[in-house]
Amino acid sequence: MPSLGELIAPRRLGRDFRWLLASSWTSNLGDGIALSAAPLLIASLTSSPLLVASGAMMQFLPWLLFGLLAGSVADHHDRRRLVMIANGSRAVVVTALVVFLVTGHVTVWIVLAAAFLYGTAEVFADSAGATLLPMLVRPVDLGIGNARLQAGFLVGNQLAGPPLGAFLFAVGSFWPFLVQILCVSLAVILISRIARTPVPAQEPRHEGVRARPIREGLHWLRHNAPVRTLVIIILVFNVTWAAPWGILVLYATEHLHMGAVGYGLLTTASALGGLVSTGCFGWLERHVSFATLMRVCLSLEVLMHLGFALTTSPVVALVIMFGFGAYAFIWGTISTTVRQRLVPLHLQGRIASVNMVGVFGGLVIGQLLGGLIAQTWGLTAPWWFAFGGSAITLLLVWRSISHIAAAKPVIADDETEAGGEPGDGGAPLRD
Questions:
Q1: Exposed / middle / buried, residue 209 (Cβ in 10 Å: 0-12, 13-18, 19+)
Q2: Is 49 exposed, middle or buried (0-12, 13-18, 19+ CB in 10 A)?
Q3: How many distinct helices (H) and strands (E) make up the chain?
Q4: Dihedral angle at the C-alpha atoms of 3, 8, 12, 14, nearest 10 degrees?
Q5: Are the CB atoms for 200 and 431 separated by under 8 Å?
Q6: Could you tell me the CA-to-CA distances from 305 to 177, 186, 252, 309, 319 in Å, in that order?
Q7: pLDDT digits (tens, 9 = 90+) for 218-248
């Protein structure tokens, strides 16, 4: 019978993957602690809804401002070292915030500035970190590798971190951020144990994009139909998803009459659904094609919106949210795996950053639309908008999904390999 360690991080993925996994899980726990502690801190300093909302916007704004730049930087420098520097910067920012808290000189403007600086460092950490897995494992193992990384996000960021952050904040306002510093610092130490990752060799650029690395990434994306379509799908589905999600607290408390605790249970049910699906992903990957899984996940999303638009039952809402967490985890793992398999190694950072800019851009657009729609037509109207928009999008891309899942990466003529046998941390590098 395989050990627990073998089940979580199979030996064939190598020691370096285990260091990456441990670093990612630790960092996600710290982020989960801040996920509840930061809004509580802002709310304790101001009663202005605009300032409270501004704290959440600090999560999106750095991606929109610096996302493409961060992807380009990741493609031209040592990615492991970039993650270490960016996470170290995050620890410094939170340390400064703790000093203000302990000395009693903190203001809401200081917290918002810290949130923006922290979010900016996180953009560079995540852009570089997203490129490490394809450098450490074989393409065939990307699915299980992404599933394990996603599991850490669900446990640390969504389940364990937020309640721990709220508890620590009740003990003392600086305690959750002190623990966050320890988590982020430990993540730096863990990822430093990975063997040095080489800077990917750059292919000759097209004449029109010479010396413009960001434009080079966009040029590649524009001419690669499978990845381009995948990015568009993610953008549009984030718009339709964010429209009702932005008013979920009002929907839960005023339409379903679940109260504040019930609203919390909805988000917890989603995380639990994702956690359950982590144990099923390996079997699904072996027995069901990616094209089928992608179609099923997107179809369930359409039905989820319809279910929320129709139901008035808190129990039904909890069941739907549990299912949402399960299929959303599978979709996220598959879409990331497909993109990583298709994108050349030297462009991983830039294409991943374009994807993330689309994700956060979709969230901003969707939440704005959702608020306007709900204010005009009621709290269920955003769900009807999401149902119609996602259904139309799915019909338009239904046939394209097969091409996305079956697409093969374009390998350069001067392809080289680095690494070695499975289990020693090496993997083919595509130049």
A1: middle
A2: exposed
A3: 18, 0
A4: -110
A5: yes
A6: 36, 40, 14, 6, 13
A7: 999 999 999 999 999 999 999 999 889 878 8
d(CA 358, CA 120): 17
| pLDDT per residue as tens digits for the range 120-163 | 999 999 999 988 999 898 888 998 899 889 888 888 887 888 88
CB 274 within 8 A of CB 321: no
Name the one residue in this structure whose structure tokens are 């996220």.
332
Which amino acid is it at 172?
G
Q: How far apart are the first and last CA of the chain?
A: 39
Q: Please tell me the distance from the alpha carbon of residue 303 to that of residue 309, in angstroms, as a whole number.
A: 10
Q: To the nearest 5 percent, what fractions of the chain are helix, strand and coil?
A: 80, 0, 20
CA atoms of 405 and 227, how far apart (whole Å):
10
User: How far apart (Å, rounded) are the C-alpha atoms in residues 25 and 150?
Assistant: 9
Quick check: helix, strand or coil at residue 421?
Answer: coil
Tokens 């359950």, residue?
276
Q: How many residues does the chain have?
A: 431
CA distance 197 to 132: 8
Query: Which residue has tokens 């996180």?
Result: 122
DSSP for 64-87?
A: HHHHHHHHHHHHHS-HHHHHHHHH
Q: Which amino acid is at 196?
A: R
- Return the ∠ at Cα 211 (arms to 206 and 215), rounded to 5°: 65
Dihedral pair phi/psi, residue 408, rounded to 5°: -110, 145
> For residues 21 and 133, what is the distance between their CA atoms, to the nearest angstrom?
10
Residue 84 near residue 191 (C-beta atoms within 8 A): yes
Identify which of 305, 281, 328 has the alpha carbon closest to the alpha carbon of residue 384: 305
CA 417 from centre of chain: 29
Name the nearest CA neighbour of 395 among 284, 299, 280.
Answer: 299
Contact 129, 17 (CB under 8 A): no
Reading phi first (left if > 0) and then psi (alpha if -120 to 50, else beta), residue 259 is in: left
Which regions in the chain score pLDDT beneath 70?
Answer: 1-4, 49-50, 53, 56, 196-211, 260, 410-431
Q: Are 320 and 266 in contact (CB under 8 A)?
A: no
List pLDDT tens digits, range 62-110: 988 999 999 999 988 888 999 999 999 999 999 999 999 999 999 999 9
| C-alpha triplet 53, 93, 125: angle, nearest 5° | 85
Closest CA to 70 of 133, 117, 114, 128: 128
3-class DSSP assignment, residue 288: coil
